[in-house]
Specification:
Helix content is 42%, strand content 20%. With 385 residues, the chain is of the alpha/beta class.
Length: 385
């Protein structure tokens, strides 16, 4: 079976980490089917209006079509031009896929809206069924609810024309059902990396790690800094390392100084995934304090390294965390977070690294995720055969 995989986010020349979790899903299912990836990427610095880049690595055939993105000051004009260029780039890409790989049997559109519009068009023009997958937090944080009736109508039409819908968590699936977009979505989690690495020894109990884009509105890093300050009054050994970058980095670093953390907080910036896993291996525990998460790869990565996790009840982590591998707290509860940090720092729970890893290895390995997606592909393909 030949599957055309069209993601909204994907690693590329402008951001090698964008949508890396989608690439891991693609690589996982590429061991079961013939997969062609088509990623349409805006680039304000593109020298030509359209530039194609083909790579073949890790079992993936990946075609990236870059289009020169407009920077016009008038927003409606800019959006219209960019949509037109996206569409032309997508059609160029599809023609090349068909010439070099043959007609797809199925399109997998990953995250609305544009990938699903392309998939819908291919269905109308060539009779190719499509699967829609969602990971966007907009269905959980109120963004989708605030969209216009026209935009919601487009979403409903694209979902209803799809031959299948998958989501990364039951939490997100419930949100789509409640929004009237689907009735019974399949749940296919992200691949959790690091399961093939040797299990590291326990780290110092008071050494906490946070990995996040430094966007405080969604990740609530400031809440971790406040909780850390309180927790250190009870145990001055407690320290925090923050990996990630973003628009709020300078403000958060200033807040850490204002709170008087006295060098107990270190900001490392953005790091490659392998280095992130190294730091996880050296940490005592990991903190995920987001306001909303559809899945939370970071939670899975930490558990794969045998590390307990303190996580907010923000969506995705709820499916991971139990009393044997971490502590769940309410969203935005700084007091509960400080108490959880003290509890782990004093090793009150006695976590087993082997048991923590075992809880994720069966559900989130590349084999498990690839097999789950391949089963959905087969179901759709046979239903349209």
């Amino acid at each position: 079976m030949h599957v055309l995989f069209i993601p909204k986010w994907y690693p590329g020349r402008n951001d090698p980490q964008l949508g890396d979790f989608l690439r891991k899903q693609a690589a996982a299912v590429a061991t079961y089917v013939r997969l062609s990836v088509l990623f349409i990427a805006p680039d304000v610095n593109a020298r030509k209006r359209y530039e194609e880049e083909l790579t073949e690595a890790e079992g993936l055939w990946e075609l990236r079509v870059h289009y020169r993105a407009s920077t016009h000051a008038f927003r409606p004009f800019r959006k219209g031009i960019n949509f037109l260029r996206y569409w032309r780039a997508a059609m160029r890409g599809y023609r090349r896929v068909r010439e070099q790989r043959g007609k797809p049997d199925l399109t997998h559109a990953y995250i609305l809206v544009r990938p699903a519009l392309v998939a819908w068009w291919l269905k109308q023009r060539w009779g190719i069924p499509y699967l829609v997958s969602e990971q966007s937090s907009e269905y959980l944080d109120g963004t989708y609810a605030g969209k216009s009736a026209v935009v919601k109508g487009v979403h409903r039409a694209l979902f209803r024309a799809a031959s299948g819908v998958s989501v990364v968590s039951a939490w997100l699936g419930d949100a789509l059902v409640n929004a009237g977009l689907c009735t019974d979505p399949d749940i296919v989690p992200n691949v959790v990396p690091g399961l093939d690495r040797p299990l590291p020894p326990p780290g110092p109990p008071g050494d906490f790690l946070m990995v996040a884009d430094l966007v405080d509105r969604t990740k609530n890093i400031s809440g971790v800094l406040r909780a850390l300050t309180v927790a250190r009054n009870g145990d001055p050994r407690i320290r925090l390392t923050v990996i990630g970058d973003g628009p709020d980095r300078a403000e958060l670093q200033s807040l850490a100084q204002e709170l008087g953390t006295n060098g107990s907080v270190t900001f490392l910036g953005r790091l490659p995934n392998a280095e992130v896993l190294d730091h996880m291996g050296n940490a005592g525990a990991v903190v995920v304090n987001s306001r909303v998460e559809t899945f939370s790869v970071v939670t899975g990565e930490a558990l794969a390294q045998g590390k307990p996790v303190i996580a907010s009840r923000c969506g995705g982590p709820v499916a991971f965390i139990n009393d044997r591998n971490g502590i769940l707290i309410d969203v935005g509860d700084d007091h509960a977070l400080s108490l959880a940090m003290l509890s782990i720092a004093n090793s009150e729970a006695g976590y087993s690294a082997q048991e923590i890893r075992a809880g994720v290895s069966d559900r989130f390995s590349p084999k498990a995720v690839g097999n789950a997606l391949a089963a959905i592909y087969e179901r759709i393909h046979h239903g349209h055969g």
